[in-house]
Amino acid sequence: MVRFSTAVAVVALLASVVMVAESTLSCGQVASGVAPCLGYLRNVAPLTPTCCAGIRSLNNAARSPADRRAVCFCLKSAAGNIRGISLPVAGGLPGRCGVPIPYKISPSTDCNKVG
């Protein structure tokens, strides 16, 4: 039973890596777009026009389903790994910037369902 669950986890991980590899967007590009928002995401600075411009730019760059999944995986990873980020604030950021996305930015988001 343990071997089966390990195999399933490995297959899921490989599938997510393949989806990100098919994208033209990198996590570095996603990080650059979100970087101006870090103060806001940590509740230490107001929401700025520069932050929203980065979010709009990412949304505009994510043209294909593979791009949108890649951005989702990068945001999901960042939401879980960057210290001090308020997850409710992160989840509401696109909406606050007037950018509709069909998922919440959260470590629990299933990016495989993003299309």
Report on this structure.
Residues 1-23 form the signal peptide. The structure is a single chain. Helix content is 63%, strand content 0%. The chain is mainly alpha-helical and 115 residues long. The longest helix is centred in the N-terminal third of the chain and has 20 residues, at 2-21.
Quick take:
The protein has 115 residues and is mainly α. 63% of the residues lie in helices and 0% in strands.
Strand content: under 5%
Rg: 15 Å
- How does the major sheet shape up? none
CATH homologous superfamily, by name? Plant lipid-transfer and hydrophobic proteins
Helix content range of the residues, please?
A: 55-70%
CATH class: Mainly Alpha
Number of separate strands: 0
Number of helix segments?
Answer: 6
Assembly state (oligomeric): single chain
Terminus-to-terminus distance = 32 Å
CATH architecture annotation: Orthogonal Bundle
The CATH topology comes to: Hydrophobic Seed Protein
Give average pLDDT, whole number.
81
Order of helices and strands: HHHHHH
Specify the overall morphology: globular
Number of domains: 1
Low-confidence stretches: 1-21
Structural class: mainly alpha
